[in-house]
Amino acid sequence: MFNGDIFTFLKPKNELESQPAKKGSEENRPYIPDAMWVKCPGCKDMILAADMEENNRVCVKCGHHFRLSANKRIELLADIGTFEEMDADLQSKNVIDFPEYTRKLKSAQIQSGESESVKTGVCKIGGIKTVICVMDPTFMMGSMGSVTGEKITRAFEYATRNALPIIACTVSGGARMQEGILSLMQMAKTSGAVKKHSDAGLLYITVLTDPTTGGVTASFAMEGDIIISEPNALIAFAGPRVIEQTIRQKLPKNFQTAEFLLEKGFIDMVVQRSDLKETLYKLLKLHMFEGEVLPV
Amino acid sequence: MNAFDKVTAARSVDKLTSMDFIERMFKDSFIELHGDRRFADDKAVIGGVAMLHDTPVTVIGLEKGRNLKERMERNFGMAHPEGYRKALRLMKQAEKFKRPIICFVDTSGAYCGIGAEERGQGQAIAENIMEMMALKTPIISIFIGEGGSGGALALAVADEVWMLENSVYSVISPEGCASILWKDSSRTAEAAEVLKLTAQDLFKLGVIERIIREPKKDEYKAFESLKVLIGRTLEKNSRLSENELVETRYNRFRKFGNS
Asked: Residue A76 CB: number of other CB atoms within 10 A?
């Protein structure tokens, strides 16, 4: 065909021409390892990772709060050497034989270095003994499976038996669908344990961190006597993408942020990470029983 | 029928709605009560008082509507926070007057929208679940169609949960599961299978106490025997002390994932 033949007249590219063009400045740039810098989603600036880590994973320029692992948060809140973990040996099983779940659990364990999406235990904050549940964003996005629910429930039961306050730091994509209905049942199970703790006249503080959504928002995260959130955290029942798909509308800019929830009356306060321990300490102290003394 | 056939049957527009059950079971004795006393009256939730034989009961149902006009009005059975708050108000009222509670569940899920989030959808569901856990009156929840996640659970923290043979109850819709897990919405039927969401699957998992045979529209006897069954169960639970009742309910949910 004539059409085909026309291309045979085109000059073939030589070796130099066929290489992608190099940007002029690239070669003169100093070599910087990628891991040293991170782009801050808040101010979009490149910041030194070491500075950010040093600052409890808060951007030194704009104050954006990066996600914190369970271990780091415990380090931030608990008095040094006081955290004693509970139920560390509990491990999830693939009860409903969900495809790929066993493998996913393994890789989550390797990736996060945790056995599950929540770490529970007792610790002291400013010398005051409290139970604490801290979720981990690196373990399957903090999703709530049966063991997550079990550990939280046991932590509440322990707090109720020992007349202790409890703090829950949440970060979660919601119920873990790989466990089917059993993950949904954890919402009821944990809420029942919260209720018993509450009926015993004990204090429960929740610290919501980015993101707290779905089944965790619709259960123990929203059941605290006092609800604190970190700045700009996404707090939602249905995530923004689901809502946009449902209503086919762009959402307002600060929609479902901690500040938005504060304005709408669903949380008590927004607290900077640097002030979190002090705030928790003051609240715990204010709720101490009559005659209870701070250990020296 | 495979799992996805069950999903389709559960969603069918021919399926009897909460209102159908209420009319057939309680007839004229049903008095509808409205509003959450805080914001609005959510028509996706119907509730009121009725007589079950000789016993006054509180009846609450998620209602999809029986024709297009009704379905629009009732937001296709997807409740806003005010719907869950209305349900909780009626449940607290039932507790006060020592009336047992019967819930009918039929929803694809709690509504996802701006207003729902602004008014605390998560908080409303959380509060229902927490309060129902300790409500000092017997509760039975019956799934008559779809049971979509937290929006269904907010009316299903009960002493016994029953399901019609063609109803489903799931943590996520099969469509949602397929698109998150495999980024492929054409694998919906496969997702329905692996989620174990049919009444039969859930009975095997020990999540529900009873599977109810699907009654036909005018099968008067079937509704009568359902009434008898409910009456017997409520009576059995009414004989427990308030503490025993709440403790039994706690343990019912406590056992899930405790192995």
From this structure: 16
Question: A164: helix, coil or strand?
Answer: coil
- Reference A284, options A17, A78, A10; nearest CA is A78
Answer yes or no: are the C-beta atoms of A136 and A70 closer than 8 Å: yes
Q: Which structural domain range is residue B180 located in?
A: 3-245
* CATH label of the domain that carries residue B18: 3.90.226.10
Domain boundaries, chain A: 33-66, 68-286
Which chain A residues are Cβ-neighbours of B117 within 8 angstroms? 236-238, 243, 255-256
Question: Using CA atoms, how far apart are residues A264 and A256, in angstroms rounded to an integer?
Answer: 10
Judged against a pLDDT cut of 50, whether residue A235 lies above it is answered with yes
Domain-located, residue B24: yes
Domain count, chain B: 1
User: Could you report the per-residue pLDDT of A247-282, keeping only the tens digit for each?
Assistant: 888 888 899 999 999 999 999 999 999 999 999 999
Name the residue among B207, B198, B218, B237 with its Cα closest to residue B55: B237
For domain A68-286, the question of CATH label 2.40.10.170 is answered with: no
Contacts of residue B181 in chain A, CB cutoff 8 Å? 177
In a domain, B255, yes or no: no
Average pLDDT over residues A119-129: 98
The answer to whether residues A11 and A18 touch, using CB atoms and an 8 Å cutoff, is no
Nearest to A177 among B116, B123, B177 (CB): B177
Q: What is the pLDDT of residues B206-245, one digit of tens each?
A: 999 999 999 999 999 999 999 999 999 999 999 999 999 9
Contact in structure between B130 and A165 (CB atoms under 8 Å): no
Q: Is the pLDDT confidence value at A132 over 80?
A: yes
For B94-117, write each residue's pLDDT tens digit: 999 999 999 999 999 999 999 999
Cα distance between residue A274 and residue A292, in whole Å: 28
